[in-house]
Each structure stands twice: as C-alpha cells, then as structure tokens.
Amino acid sequence: MPPAAAAQPPDFAAAARFWLKLGFISFGGPAGQIAIMHREVVERRRWLAERDFTGALNFCMLLPGPEALQLAIYLGWRLHGFRGGLVAGLAFIGPAIALLLGLSWAYARFGHLPAATGLLLGLKAAVLALVLQALSRIGRRALGRPLHVALAIAAFVALEVLGVPFPLIVLAAAAIGLAAAWRAPRPAATTRPAPGAGAPLRVALAGLALWVVPLLAVALTLGPQSLWSRLYVFFTQAALVTFGGAYAVLGYVTQHLVQDLGWLTAEQSVAGLALAETTPGPLVIVLQFMGFMAGWNQPGALDPAVSAVVAAALASWATFLPSFVFIFLGAPYVERIARAPRISAALAAITAAVVGIIATLALLLARVVLVPDGWSGGVGWAALAIAVTVWWLLERTRLELHWILVAAALAGLAVQGLGWA
Asked: For 168-212, how does the pLDDT look when each residue is reduced to its tens digit (9 = 90+)?
C-alpha cells in the first residue's frame, strides 16, 4: 500500500483526468513539465505537500531516464498506488507517442515538416517563460545557504563552460552535501511500515519479464540479429545511461545510429528533434522517431510502414519501461530516505546543483527563442513580448496553463502572418 495521501487527496477518476490533461499540455521539456506539476499538484490542488514533492523530485533526479515522467509516475503512485502510477505515467507519454507516430509517418511519407513556424514561435516563447519561472521558484527554495548558491554557480559553469557530464555533477554535489552533514545525527525510526521483503523482488521480476517478452517475440519472428532485435537492445542500453535529460543522450544515440550503423541520416535525426519539440511529453520521445526512421529506411521483408511502426514501438518500450520499474522499486523508500539528515543534505545539494543546470537550459532557450540568428541577426522582439506576457499571466493570474499555451501559439501565428517574426 502507498503512503497516506495529502490532506486533500483526489478520487481516482479526478486524478486520472488530470494526468491525461497533463499528457496533452506538458510542453517545455523537463523544467517546464516539473513546473506544471508543481503548480497544479502542490499549489493549486494541494494534493501533495511541498516537502514531499521536493523529496520525490530529488529522488527522480538521481535516476537515469526522463525525470519529469518519473516524477509523474511517483506522484500517481503516492496518491493511488500502483494503478495510480501506471495511469499517471501512461497518460504522460501516451499523447506524445501517438502524436509523434503520426508526424513520423507524415515526414517519412511526404518528406517535409508541417508548416507550423508561427505556432512554434509562440510555444517556444511560452516555454522560455515557464523555464524561467521554474528557475526562479526552485532557486528561492533551494538556495537558502551560501554553500547551495556556490553549488548552483559551480554546476552552471561546469555544464555550460567546462562540459562536465551531468552524472558527475550530480555525484559531486551529493558528495559535498554528505560531507557537509557528516556529523548529523542518524534519523529516528519511522513508524511507517516498510514494504514486504518480497515486494521489490516482484517488481524487478515483473519488469524483467516485460522487457524479455518483446525481445523473444522479435527474435523468434524476425531473427535475433535483425535490425529490430538489435534496435531494441540498443535503446535499452541508451535508456540506462540517460542522465541529464534528452539532450545528453541524443549525442550518443545519434552518433551510433547515424555514424556507426547508418540506420538513418543526420538530416533525419535533426528533423526528428524538431518534431519532438512540437509534441508534449518528454523530449526523449525523439528516440521513438529515430527508431521509426530506422525501420522505414531498412524494412527488410516487411512493408516500410509496418517495419517503422514495429521499430518505433520497440524504441518507446525500451526507452520508457525502465522509468516505471525504477519508480515502483524505489517509491516506498522515498519518504524514509528524505527523513535521513545526511541523505537530505545530499539531496538538497543536488537540488542546488539542479538550479544551475536549469539555468543552462534557460540560457539555451533564450538564445534559440530571442536571438535565433545570433546577435548579428538582432533580437526577436515579438518572441520576447510573448514570453514576458506569458510570465505575467503565470505570475499574476489563475488562468489554466493550457489556455495560456493556446494563446501563446495563436500569438505566434499572428506574428508570423504579419511578418513581424
């Protein structure tokens, strides 16, 4: 059984409706998606306390894979157990999977992207505002000590200037936090019962079975050395090293699929990232597109569309299954881990480092949205105006986020139509 829910828990149907809506509006990458969940789950609906949300986020940041998806799974589990976690996770990625599958087919079939420049202009500006808002709010909570301010600055410099891998930044921050709290007392015993000794084993075995069954099915029908079998194993490996978000793993995946294996072209890889940016859900969904194009380009004896859909399904399954397994294994222990002073100090240090990491994302988005052609091309004043307006709406009004996003997209479309972009 999951821990007790917050003071104002929703019923299962209300929570399921929220998770499904989240799946359709979760633009903005992990920072924006986490900001949406915090705004809705903690601030507006009060389904979970701030401390529980922060502890869960810190735990998810330690895991490989898309942290926003893992946070959604955990929050669903916290409210309604395993069924809540499954519904939250599947609803979070379901719309993105379906939408990108359709866009992938349109791209492969017709060879060009939809004309959505104006809509994207507005959405990207809104995403910039969301990320800056998340940076401000998390920074206010996480940077209360000089050590944490220093960690945030160091993380920013390490990632943006020195190119230090994200896992090393997380490990270094955790080590510094542990060292700072080395003499802290051990936590008092909690009264919350521990999960049964067999529960983690059952979760692990179920996860292993869910991974092995597709592999056996593909190997027996299409061959153990076929493209689809090899693709499934490769994307599983990629999922297990996806620290630092989608951008961190994209370089590794692109190099292997494009340069080493030649399963798709560099142009197709870039097109996939552009399409993934237009969909809700985790940006790592771009791996589904890359699987789709690998199957389309090398269908073997299958019809190209059938081959592509099978490859896309295998890529998605291999990419997202580990996140469910990791959360269901660790969720019962999140609260206990957060109660330990030393672990809490390490997680607080990680959160401070994450502020610096989000700052690098905000800087990247600001460059893309506000100076898309570089400083020589001038500032995109229309995009800046949309971003500032979205920030004001988020901070000063109680409008639902999806309406704000719709308004931003329409504003971008109008700007593009008037030639102001």
From this structure: 787 888 889 888 877 655 555 544 455 554 578 899 999 999 999
User: The tokens 């179920």 sit on which residue?
Assistant: 206
The residue to which tokens 């100076």 are assigned = 371
Residue type, 21: K
Q: Which tens digit of pLDDT belongs to each residue from 353-365?
A: 878 877 876 787 7
More confidently predicted of 10 and 242: 10
How far is the C-alpha of 333 from the C-alpha of 315, rounded, in Å? 30
By C-alpha distance, which of 26, 45, 77, 7 is closest to 333?
77
Q: What is the DSSP string of 58-73?
A: HHHHTSSS-HHHHHHH
For residue 300, the tally of other CB atoms under 10 A from its CB is 12
What tokens does 18 get? 């929220």
Nearest to 105 by CA among 301, 295, 283, 318: 295
Give me the DSSP letters along 351-400. HHHHHHHHHHHHHHHHHHHH-TT-GGG---HHHHHHHHHHHHHHHH----
Q: For the segment 32-51, what is each residue's pLDDT rounded down to a tens digit?
A: 788 888 888 888 888 988 88
How remote is the C-alpha of 260 from its chain's centroid? 27
Q: What distance in Å separates the CA atoms of residue 232 and residue 238, rounded to the nearest whole number?
A: 10
Q: Nearest CA to 56 among 81, 34, 74, 36? A: 74
From CA 154, how far away is CA 157, in angstroms rounded?
5
Concatenate the DSSP letters of all residues of 136-161 into one string: HHHHHHH--SHHHHHHHHHHHHIIII
d(CA 166, CA 245): 9
| Gap between the Cα atoms of 376 and 48, Å rounded | 47
**How many whole angstroms separate alpha carbon 153 and alpha carbon 352?**
9
- Give the residue among 96, 108, 78 at the shortest CA–CA distance from 2: 78
